[in-house]
Amino acid sequence: MLTKRIIPCLDVTLDKEGGSVVKGVEFVNLREAGDPVELAKRYNEQRADELVFLDIMASHKGRKTMIDVIERTSDEVFIPLTVGGGIREIEDIDAILRAGADKVSINTSAIKNPKFIEESSDVFGSQCIVVAIDCKRNFSDEGKNYIYVNGEKCWYEVVIYGGRKRMGIDAIWWAEEVQRLGAGEILLTSMNADGTKNGFDIPITRTISERVKIPVIASGGAGTLEHFYEGFKEGKADACLAASIFHFGEYTVGEVKEYLQEKGIPVRT
Question: Is the pLDDT of residue 68 over 90?
Answer without folding.
Answer: no
